[in-house]
Write a structure and sequence with these properties.
The chain is an alpha/beta fold. It starts with 8 loop residues before the first strand and ends in a 13-residue tail after the last helix. The site of adenosine-5'-triphosphate has 12 residues, from strand 2 and helix 1. Keywords: Antibiotic resistance, ATP-binding, Nucleotide-binding, Transport. Its main location: membrane.
C-alpha cells in the first residue's frame, strides 16, 4: 500500500483579521493533486482572503500553508511558475493590445508557446489585437483566464473564474478545466454557487463567515442524489415491477407511463425497463445544490447561524 501523496494545497488553522474585523477564523483545507476543488461561499465569506494568503499576496495572522510542497513565503519564485492565478478583481488599464500584455506575462513566466496563447484566445473568442483598456469586463476576464492557463501550470487558483462570462464561454471554461484535470493537474476555484462547479468538481467546500462549514466529495453527493425518471412504454406496465427495485422510490403508473424517483445508479431500472419496448425516457438532473445544503443544514456541518442567505452558498 502506498501512502497518500501530499496535498497540493494544505492550510491549517488559517486566521486573518483586517483591523478588528475577523475575516478568517481557523480555515483548514487539503486539496489533492489532480482534483478540481470548488471553494464556495457567499459574499464576504473569506474566499478571496484565503486565496490571497495562499499566494502570499497578503499575510496570514496565524496558521500553516503549504503549496506544491513549498512555503508561499519562501518559495514564491518557483511557485509562481508552477501556478496559474486568476484574481477576483482584474485591474487592466494598459492602452496596449491584449497580445502584448500576454506576451509580457509569458516572458515573466520564462516563455510560453505563442500558439498556446492563440489557441486559448480563440477558444474564448478573445480579440488579441484590441487595446486592453477599452475592453468589457467579460473580455478582461478572458485575458485573465488566458494568462492563468497559458503556461500549463501544475496548479490553477481561480477566484470566481466564470464571473462576467456568457453561458457558452462558461461551458468552454469548464471544458478547459476538464482537460487540466485529465492532465493530472489541479484546479482550485471559488464560486458563489455549487451549480457553477458541480459538473467538474471532485470536492467542494463551503466557507461562511471565515470558517469551513461543509466539505463534500462530489461523487458521494451524486450517489445520494435523487432524480425523477419518466418512461413511456408501448404497452401497459405494472408499477410493482419497478417499485421492488432497490434504486427506485415512489413508482407510479398512469396509462403506459411510469414515473419514479431513482437514487444512485439507475442500472436496475434500465435493465427492468429493457425487457419491454420503451418509447421515451426523460431523466431530470438532480439538484445537487439543494442536496448539498440540506445535508449540512441537517446537523452534519456546524454552520454558524447567519442573517439571511446569499446566492445559494
Ligand atoms: N482589504 C480589506 N480591508 C478590510 N476588510 C476586508 C478587506 N478585504 C476583505 N475584507 C473583509 O474580510 C471579509 C472576507 O472578505 P473576502 O473578500 O475574503 O470574501 P469573499 O468570500 O471573497 O467575498 P466575495 O464573494 O464578495 O468576493 C469580509 O468581511 C470583507 O469585508
Amino acid at each position: 500500500m502506498t501512502a497518500d501523496p501530499l496535498p497540493v494545497i494544505s492550510c491549517k488553522g488559517l486566521t486573518k483579521s483586517y483591523g478588528r474585523r475577523s475575516a478568517l477564523s481557523g480555515v483548514d483545507l487539503a486539496v489533492a493533486e489532480g482534483d478540481v476543488f470548488g471553494f464556495l461561499g457567499p459574499n464576504g465569506a473569506g474566499k478571496t482572503t484565503t486565496i490571497r494568503i495562499l499566494l502570499d499576496l497578503i499575510r496570514r495572522d496565524s496558521g500553516d500553508v503549504t503549496l506544491l510542497g513549498g512555503d508561499p513565503r519562501r518559495d514564491g519564485v518557483r511557485l509562481r511558475r508552477d501556478i496559474g492565478y486568476l484574481p477576483g478583481e482584474l485591474s487592466m488599464t494598459s492602452r496596449r493590445p491584449a497580445r502584448e500584455l500576454l506576451s509580457f506575462l509569458a516572458h515573466l513566466r520564462g516563455g510560453v508557446d505563442r500558439r498556446a496563447i492563440e489557441s486559448l484566445a480563440e477558444r474564448f473568442a478573445l480579440d488579441l489585437d484590441r487595446p486592453v483598456r477599452g475592453l468589457s469586463k467579460g473580455n478582461k476576464q478572458k485575458i485573465g483566464l488566458v494568462q492563468a492557463f497559458m503556461h500549463r501550470p501544475r496548479l490553477l487558483i481561480l477566484d470566481e473564474p466564470t464571473s462576467g462570462l456568457d453561458p457558452l464561454l462558461q461551458q468552454e471554461f469548464l471544458n478547459l478545466v476538464r482537460e487540466v484535470r485529465e492532465d493530472g493537474r489541479t484546479v482550485f476555484m471559488s464560486s458563489h454557487v455549487l451549480s457553477e462547479v458541480q459538473d467538474v468538481a471532485d470536492q467542494a467546500a463551503i466557507i461562511r463567515a471565515g470558517r469551513i462549514v461543509a466539505l463534500e466529495d462530489m461523487d458521494d453527493l451524486r450517489e445520494r442524489a435523487l432524480r425523477t425518471v419518466t418512461m413511456a412504454f408501448a404497452e401497459p406496465v405494472d408499477a410493482q415491477d419497478f417499485a421492488r427495485l432497490d434504486c427506485v422510490r415512489d413508482a407510479s403508473v398512469e396509462g403506459n407511463t411510469l414515473t419514479c424517483t431513482v437514487e444512485g445508479s439507475p442500472d436496475a431500472l434500465v435493465k427492468e425497463a429493457a425487457t419491454r419496448t420503451v418509447l421515451s425516457l426523460t431523466s431530470e438532473e438532480p439538484d445537487l445544490e439543494e442536496l448539498f445544503f440540506t445535508h449540512y443544514n441537517n446537523g452534519r456541518g456546524s454552520a454558524p447561524q447567519e442573517e439571511g442567505s446569499d446566492a445559494g452558498a
